[in-house]
Amino acid sequence: MRGLVDKFDAIMIPGGGVRAGGRLPAWTERRLERALERQSGEYLLTLSAGTPHRPAPVDSRGYQMHESRVAAEYLLRRGADPARVLFETCSLDTVGNAYFSLAIHVLPRRWRSLLVITSEFHLERTREAFEWVYGLAGAGGPYQLQFEAVSDAGLDETLLAARIRKEREGLRALHKVMPRISTLAEFHAWLFAEHTAYAAGAAAAAPLDAITRESY
To answer: What pTM was estimated for this model as a whole?
Structure first.
C-alpha cells in the first residue's frame, strides 16, 4: 500500500475550506502549489464539496461555491492543463474524500498509483482514512498510496492548536468504526445510514467553537 514510486496516475488534494469571493485559505493554496510542483503528467484531482462545519459561500449568481471547483480553478490559473484537472463535489469530510474519490474517479479510470497531498495537521487522519477505504474488500485494489504533507508554518498558533485537537477527536472516532467495516458495501451502508454528514435524518454534527471552525 505504501510502496514508494515516482510517477502516479493522479495526485489528489483534499479541500481545506473556501471563503467569501472564492478565496482559499493559505494552507489550501500550499497543498495546490505542492501538487503543481510534483505533477509530471498526472491528473490533478481536487476533493470536497464543502464542510458541515460552516456555511458554504455563494457566487455572484447565488450558487454554492464548491471547495474542489474553486481549487481546480486555482490550478488552471496557475497554468495547469485543463485536460488533466478533475474535481469531486460530493464529499463533506476526510473519509468522504476517500470514498467519493474512489467511487467517482479512481474506479472508472482504473488508477492504481496515487499521491495525496494535504497539510501536516491533517496528514495522519487523511492517511488512515484513505488506507482504510482503499483497502476494503471490493474497492478494486490493491493500490499504491503515498502521502505528502505541506508545512503548517505561519498558521495562527491558536487556530492550529484547536484544529490539531479536532483532528485527534476525528481519528479516535474513526478508530471506533474501522474494526466493524471490512468491505466497500459495509462502508457504503455505514456512511449513508449513520454518518452525520451523509445519512438522511441524521442529527447534525455538534457546532464547533469559532476558532476551530475557522480552520475549515
So the answer is: 0.94
Q: Collapsing DSSP states into helix, strand and coil, what is residue 116?
A: strand
| Distance (Å, whole) CA 150 – CA 114 | 17
Compute the distance between CA of residue 75 and CA of residue 111 in angstroms, rounded to an integer.
21
Query: Reduced to 3 states, what is the DSSP secondary structure of residue 99?
Result: helix
CA distance 196 to 158: 27
Q: Could you tell me if 46 and 72 are in contact, meaning their C-beta atoms sit under 8 angstroms apart?
A: yes
First to last CA, the chain: 29
| b/e map 53-83, b = 16+ CB within 10 Å | bbeebeeeeeeebbbbbbbbbbbeeeebeee
SS3 183: strand
96: Cβ contacts below 8 Å, ≥ 6 apart: 48, 90, 191, 195, 197, 198
- Residues 37-62 have pLDDT tens digits of 999 999 999 999 999 888 899 999 99
Mean pLDDT of 141-159: 95
> What is the C-alpha to C-alpha distance for residues 85 and 53, in angstroms, rounded to an integer?
27
In contact, 130 and 109? CB cutoff 8 Å: no
